[in-house]
């Protein structure tokens, strides 16, 4: 298992682990199911997904799934993942997907997480980060805009759902940005 840990001093991102399953299930609510997972989780399903994520880390696969962690005890506040290959993406584009548990929303944590994974994606060779959002998901679109993403094209998912794209060029030099997240 990779020991990647990113932090901006407020949140930390590290790979999902099996002991995150209970906190994830406890934090799951209707918006998270609707916008991110597509169905309520089960302990067996969440653990299988986390094992898959760990395998992706171990084999340098196209998926990098992180837990969004807060506080000195690194309480799991949500998840964020990168997909370096996905349907509809051009070479160099990286899909970003995220979700926070209800008690952690409205604090700017998702924006911080998006900024951290964007920097990580750039360090791994990503050229553009893409956030694909259903038009009704105004909260997620707001996170994308706050993180410096700009509106792009509109597509439809496999099920016909319209998706608005938000794109951020990862090749922009952030080394001189004092607010840029740094590895922990």
Structural write-up:
InterPro entries: Acyl_CoA_acyltransferase (IPR016181), GNAT_dom (IPR000182), Ribosomal_N-acetyltransferase (IPR051908). This is GNAT family N-acetyltransferase. Residues 11-171 form the N-acetyltransferase domain. By secondary structure, the protein is α+β, with helices and mostly antiparallel strands. The chain has one domain (6-183): Aminopeptidase, CATH 3.40.630. It is 30% helix and 30% strand. The protein has five helices and nine strands. The chain has helices at residues 21-27, 30-37, 43-58, 109-123, 138-146; strands at residues 6-7, 11-15, 63-70, 75-83, 93-100, 128-133, 150-156, 162-169, 182-183. The protein has a nine-stranded mixed sheet, sandwiched between helices. Strand 5 (93-100), helix 4 and strand 6 form a beta-alpha-beta unit. Helix 1 (21-27) crosses helix 3 (43-58).
Descriptors:
184 residues; alpha+beta; Aminopeptidase; 9-stranded mixed sheet; 5 helices; 9 strands; disordered C terminus
How many independent structural domains? Answer: 1
Largest pleated sheet = 9 strands, mixed
**Cα-to-Cα separation, first versus last residue:** 17 Å
CATH fold topology: Aminopeptidase
Strand content: 25-35%
Strand order of the largest sheet: 7-8-6-5-4-3-2-1-9
Radius of gyration over all CA atoms, rounded: 15 Å
Strand tally: 9
List the topology elements.
Layout: E1 6-7, E2 11-15, H1 21-27, H2 30-37, H3 43-58, E3 63-70, E4 75-83, E5 93-100, H4 109-123, E6 128-133, H5 138-146, E7 150-156, E8 162-169, E9 182-183
Parallel strand pairs: 5-6
Antiparallel strand pairs: 1-2, 1-9, 2-3, 3-4, 4-5, 6-8, 7-8
Helix pairs in contact: 1-3
Domain N-acetyltransferase: 11-171
Pfam family, one: Acetyltransf_3
Protein name: GNAT family N-acetyltransferase
